[in-house]
């Protein structure tokens, strides 16, 4: 990557990326890990790569329309959530509670396998939430957005966002407990 491009802000890169592929590559490198995490938790690890590709194709096409009213990362989160919703609509995964994976056994699995399994369980649990709750919870817990940012991004009232997050967290806690995962406070 070009060091000069690496030092530019997201809005500067977005303006350049309309006509300079190298600037767009810097944006992709900078934001792909966060987009992948958000996608994996929403659609599952298996479909996340496809969603990431769809996100950056859509972002590239939409660069001319990016006005900079919101942060580039917030704009990218919206595109990611839209791509996740589209993917979930096509594949419609449903994971009955009785089919939830058993908790990892510390005796016969490595720590990496336990972490992978926990991520898969969390992803499955998130997919059971209504779309509005899943979106609010992932924006808060995965992307680290503030409540007001989530409200602005989703167009929901601040109180509605807080309620969706609280209900989503409660549903996740219940699902994970039934799956044998002990949530920590």
Short note summarizing the structure:
This protein has 185 residues and is an all-alpha fold.
Written overview of the protein:
Residues 119-172 form the RNA polymerase sigma factor 70 region 4 type domain. Keywords: DNA-binding, Sigma factor, Transcription, Transcription regulation. InterPro entries: RNA_pol_sigma-70-like (IPR039425), RNA_pol_sigma-70_dom (IPR014284), RNA_pol_sigma70_r2 (IPR007627), RNA_pol_sigma70_r4_t2 (IPR013249), RNA_pol_sigma_r2 (IPR013325), RNA_pol_sigma_r3/r4-like (IPR013324), WH-like_DNA-bd_sf (IPR036388). Residues 27-92 form the RNA polymerase sigma-70 region domain. The protein is built from nine helices and no strands. The protein is mostly helical and 185 residues long. Helix 3 crosses helix 6 and helix 7 crosses helix 9 (158-178). Helix content is 70%, strand content 0%. Residues 92-109 have low confidence and may be disordered. It is globular and about 50 Å long. It folds into two domains: 1-93, Orthogonal Bundle (Rna Polymerase Sigma Factor, Chain: A); 95-185, Arc Repressor Mutant, subunit A.
Keywords:
185 residues, Rna Polymerase Sigma Factor, Chain: A, 70% helix
Topology:
Blueprint: H1 3-6, H2 10-17, H3 21-43, H4 45-62, H5 72-91, H6 111-127, H7 131-141, H8 147-154, H9 158-178
Helix pairs in contact: 2-3, 3-4, 3-5, 3-6, 4-5, 6-9, 7-9, 8-9
User: What distance lies between the first and last C-alpha atoms, to the nearest angstrom?
Assistant: 41 Å
Helix content: over 70%
Mean pLDDT: 82
The ordered string of helix (H) and strand (E) elements is HHHHHHHHH
The total count of strands amounts to: 0
Count structural domains. 2
Shape: globular
Any idea of the CATH topology of the largest domain?
Rna Polymerase Sigma Factor, Chain: A
Sheet with the most strands, sense and barrel status: none
Rounded to the nearest angstrom, the radius of gyration is 18 Å
CATH superfamily of the largest domain: RNA polymerase sigma factor, region 2, helix turn helix motif
**What is the level-2 CATH architecture name of the largest domain?**
Orthogonal Bundle
How many H/I helical runs? 9
Tell me, what is the CATH class of the largest domain? Mainly Alpha
């Amino acid at each position: 990557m070009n060091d000069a491009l690496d030092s530019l802000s997201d809005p500067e890169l977005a303006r350049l990326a309309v006509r300079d592929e190298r600037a767009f590559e810097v944006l992709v490198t900078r934001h792909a890990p966060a987009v992948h995490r958000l996608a994996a938790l929403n659609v599952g690890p298996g479909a996340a790569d496809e969603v990431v590709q769809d996100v950056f194709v859509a972002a590239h096409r939409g660069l001319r329309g990016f006005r900079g009213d919101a942060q580039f990362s917030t704009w990218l989160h919206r595109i990611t959530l839209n791509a996740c919703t589209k993917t979930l609509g096509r594949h419609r995964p449903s994971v009955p509670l009785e089919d939830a994976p058993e908790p990892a056994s510390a005796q016969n699995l490595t720590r990496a396998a336990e972490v992978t399994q926990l991520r898969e369980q969390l992803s499955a649990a998130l997919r059971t939430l209504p779309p509005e709750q899943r979106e609010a919870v992932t924006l808060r817990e995965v992307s680290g957005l503030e409540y007001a940012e989530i409200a602005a991004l989703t167009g929901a009232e601040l109180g509605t966002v807080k309620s969706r997050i609280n209900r989503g967290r409660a549903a996740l806690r219940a699902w994970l407990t039934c799956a044998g995962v002990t949530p920590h406070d």
